[in-house]
Design a protein that fits this description.
- The chain is built from two helices and six strands.
- With 97 residues, it is α+β, with helices and mostly antiparallel strands.
- The chain has one domain: Alpha-Beta Plaits.
- The termini are far apart.
- The mean pLDDT is 91.
């Protein structure tokens, strides 16, 4: 079963090829999604990498978390399901209008 991994604090210059090379050392990479700004198309500084197995994901997390890539110390962790993340739009407050 595939395991999605969060990769944060990326340089805006980090490419998909760079991430694929890094993560492929720990197992099969199913896919990479570098998150970009909808309006500008520029990278936001984080990505998600789908690893083929949970073991490959765990190996990548332990080996790559804190590693310097493109002059930035990256953060690598298991991706959290969207429902579990703190959503900016849902602050628990009522709308102002």
């Amino acid at each position: 079963m595939t395991q999605k991994v969060y990769v944060g604090n990326l340089s805006y210059n980090t490419s998909e090829a760079t991430l694929r090379t890094l993560f492929a050392e720990h197992g099969e990479v199913e896919g990479i999604n570098i998150i970009t700004d909808r309006e500008t198309g520029r990278p936001k500084g984080f990505a998600f990498v789908e690893m083929a197995t949970e073991e490959a994901a765990e190996s990548a997390i332990s080996a790559l978390n804190g590693k310097v890539v493109d002059d930035r110390e990256i953060r690598v962790d298991k991706a959290k399901p969207q429902a579990d993340r703190d959503r900016r739009r849902d602050t628990g407050r009522r709308p102002r209008w």
